[in-house]
């Protein structure tokens, strides 16, 4: 049976060897000299060999045996390996290192996360973060298959996601997006039925209309475009109109306008989505707590 070597005993051995004495090692370890002697004796018993020559009464120096000389670099290597692992695990527990993976709907990834993450990593410069942006269905799928630690999305059909926990954080209203020169552009608000007179382009957020009186618009849509960059290009080209939540509206566009959809009033709630029966990594848990703290009232 292999001996179980204690890191504390290895440290005592290295200190005695490097400082050439038990007294000096005891001072470094903040222990008594007899305690260090007992520690070394126990280590020698485990190894089955003496580590130090019998001390000469005329000399206080501790001299290594040939076995001790061979063991010294091995002991140092074991201590260094132990300390590296202990440091890595401590940093990980303090969310200062490791790899965090999250997925988010594009509107939050582009508008909210840059500021949140820049402040979060200020205290964890060695933490690696992978952020995937996609529509809500894709985000939920990544959470489901544990490809990410948690997601930021809307949870439309809660009965389909009984194994997930949803913490709502943000909400925005759905509106109609069209070109500035479109006949609808000057409207203050819109009734869903008005949209039936125009070419509709549905997108990944169009599911928000399901279960509302505006649901027939989903069947009326002539085009479906999943990518936001492509959707904006089609809208700017005058291909048609679409519905989008306010956060998703490309406010940097000078050619598009947003008109509130008031009948029905559709609100998108966005929050943190995670598996209910899985613990988060220390870094992921820390980020979740950080995001929640930023959204506390007052």
From TrEMBL:
Stretches that traverse the bilayer: none
PROSITE patterns associated with the record: HTH_LYSR
Signal sequence region: none
Single GO MF annotation: DNA-binding transcription factor activity
SUPFAM superfamilies recorded: Periplasmic binding protein-like II, Winged helix' DNA-binding domain
One GO term describing the cellular component: cytosol
Coiled coil segments of this chain: none
Domain HTH lysR-type: 5-65
CDD domains, per the entry: PBP2_LTTR_like_4
PANTHER family hit by this protein: HTH-TYPE TRANSCRIPTIONAL REGULATOR YBHD, NITROGEN ASSIMILATION TRANSCRIPTIONAL ACTIVATOR-RELATED
Family: Belongs to the LysR transcriptional regulatory family.
Protein name, UniProt field: LysR family transcriptional regulator
